[in-house]
Amino acid sequence: LPTNAVMERHRHRYEVNPALVGRLEEAGLQFVGRNTDESGERMEVVELSEDSHPYFVASQFHPEFTSRPELPNPLFLGLLQACKTVIVTEKTPVGA
């Protein structure tokens, strides 16, 4: 697998209508994960930029199925890192 590839099992009945992807992207969603079958039309992971939200990610797979206490799924690790950044930022005195 390429280093930027993720292999997760699609586990939802809900999907994004491919006809709406362009409009959703214009509104700020970033589809950063797409399926790898012939169609390439199923959106698997979506994010908002950090300018919009400190950590917004949604997936069509269940990261808890591949997480372990000492090896969390990257979605959970990213959430924890974003929380840490927000907490540190909020506790830093203005002008420090």
Describe this structure as you would to a colleague.
This protein is an alpha+beta fold and 96 residues long. Helices cover 25% and strands 14% of the residues. It is built from 2 helices and 3 strands; from the N terminus they run H-E-E-E-H. Strands 1-2-3 form a 3-stranded antiparallel β-sheet. The model has no long low-confidence stretch (mean pLDDT 81).
Helix percentage range: 25-40%
Which strand order spans the largest sheet, edge to edge or round the barrel?
A: 1-2-3
Tell me about the biggest sheet? 3 strands, antiparallel
Q: Return the average pLDDT rounded to an integer.
A: 81
**Mind telling me the C-alpha Rg?**
16 Å
Q: H/E series, N to C?
A: HEEEH
Number of strands: 3
How far from one another are the termini? 44 Å
Strand percent estimate: 5-15%
Number of helices: 2
What distinguishing features does this structure have?
about 100 residues; single chain; alpha+beta; three-stranded antiparallel beta sheet; 2 helices; flat
Secondary-structure map:
Blueprint: H1 21-26, E1 30-34, E2 43-47, E3 57-59, H2 74-91
Antiparallel strand pairs: 1-2, 2-3
The gist of it:
This protein has 96 residues and is an alpha+beta fold.
